[in-house]
Write a structure and sequence with these properties.
It catalyses: [protein]-L-isoaspartate + S-adenosyl-L-methionine = [protein]-L-isoaspartate alpha-methyl ester + S-adenosyl-L-homocysteine. GO terms for molecular function: protein-L-isoaspartate (D-aspartate) O-methyltransferase activity. Keywords: Methyltransferase, S-adenosyl-L-methionine, Transferase. This is protein-L-isoaspartate(D-aspartate) O-methyltransferase. There is one protein chain. The chain has 283 residues and is of the alpha/beta class. The protein has a single domain, classed as Vaccinia Virus protein VP39 (Rossmann fold), CATH 3.40.50. It is built from 10 helices and 9 strands. The strands form 2 sheets. A 7-stranded mixed sheet has the order 5-4-3-6-7-8-9. Strands 1-2 form a two-stranded antiparallel ribbon. A hairpin with a 2-residue loop joins strand 1 and strand 2. Helix 3 packs antiparallel against helix 4. The N terminus is likely disordered. The structure holds S-adenosyl-L-homocysteine (SAH).
């Protein structure tokens, strides 16, 4: 589900659980130009007209403009901090990865099979944490790749000389992630093979393209799976939610001598990294 609740920076280990309902409202206000300070309400009929006018303005914008507005909001909110992350999130249109619902609201959305595409602020947070390990030519692994959105971003960042691998254990989700990417700006990378998706148990990683400069895990593990640590390159970084009910987004750095350093970035709420049967049983 990736219902992330916080976006603290890696250097700040303080836990913040912000109310997830507050974000969409602030987001809508920033998009629709709603007043930040309340003014006296207009009469009901006029009120409905204003609302329709603002909504019409918003919904008739072309899709990519609305995606850009989402990234603009994430910049104001502090989740997008660099041009590099803004650029990739503007290039990969979130609407192509959200099968139903409102793609440009800062909230997770269902993608079927008890899975969700993560909230945009969580995508931004993970991209910011990993950006130095997503340079052109580098190798990236996205575990629990779901909609394929982040894998596509990784592929754009590492480019055709690099490798971006998405692994996911539900075959139907993998099939739709491939369709999503085929309609996106990352399609040429899928065709040339520098971006690929595979049906497999993410807890085992994907040794074929290891070692990885960057590993992202999109579902919460009770503890960091050893195969993922083994497949991380010295100097590489993994971002992984760890825990069951209470989860921390951990930033795991493998030092050049092979030792491991771990920092807690934020308290989060993700679906579990689990077996296929356990995931499909959960309501
Ligand atoms: N980053 C993705 C997150 C999808 S939700 C996105 O934003 O679209 C997490 C995904 O992890 C789900 O699609 C779920 O099916 C997958 N998952 C859970 N356990 C897994 C496992 N053991 N192996 C592979 N994928 C797993």
């Amino acid at each position: 589900m990736c219902l992330a609740a916080a976006c603290a920076s890696a250097s700040s280990p303080a836990r913040r659980l912000s109310p997830s309902t507050a974000l969409p409202r602030r987001f809508l206000h920033s998009l629709l130009g709603a007043p930040t300070r309340p003014s006296p309400p207009p009469p009901p009929l006029l009120r409905r007209c204003f609302k329709f006018y603002h909504m019409a303005q918003y919904w008739t914008q072309p899709s990519l403009d609305r995606n850009k507005a989402l990234v603009e909001y994430l910049k104001q909110y502090g989740a997008v901090r660099t041009d590099k992350v803004a650029e990739v999130m503007e290039t990969i249109d979130r609407a192509l990865f959200v099968p139903e619902g409102t793609p440009y609201v800062d909230s997770p959305m269902p993608i079927g099979f008890n899975a969700t595409i993560s909230a945009p602020h969580m995508h931004a947070t993970c991209l910011e944490l990993l950006k130095d390990h997503l340079q052109p030519g580098m190798h990236a692994l996205d575990v629990g790749s779901g909609s394929g959105y982040l894998t596509a971003c990784f592929a754009m960042m590492v480019g055709p000389e690099g490798r971006a691998v998405g692994i996911e254990h539900i075959p139907e989700i993998v099939a739709s992630s491939i369709e999503n990417v085929q309609r996106s700006a990352a399609a040429p990378l899928l065709r040339d093979g520098s971006l690929s998706f595979h049906v497999t148990d993410g807890r085992l990683g994907f040794p074929d393209a290891a070692p990885y400069d960057a590993i992202h895990v999109g579902a919460a593990a009770p503890e960091i799976p050893q195969p993922l640590l083994d497949q991380l390159k010295p100097g590489g970084r993994m971002v992984i939610p760890v825990g069951t009910y209470f989860q921390d987004l951990q930033v795991v750095d493998k030092n050049t001598d092979g030792s491991i350093s771990i920092q807690n970035d934020a308290s989060v709420r993700y679906v579990p990294l689990t077996s296929r049967s356990a995931q499909l049983q959960d309501p």
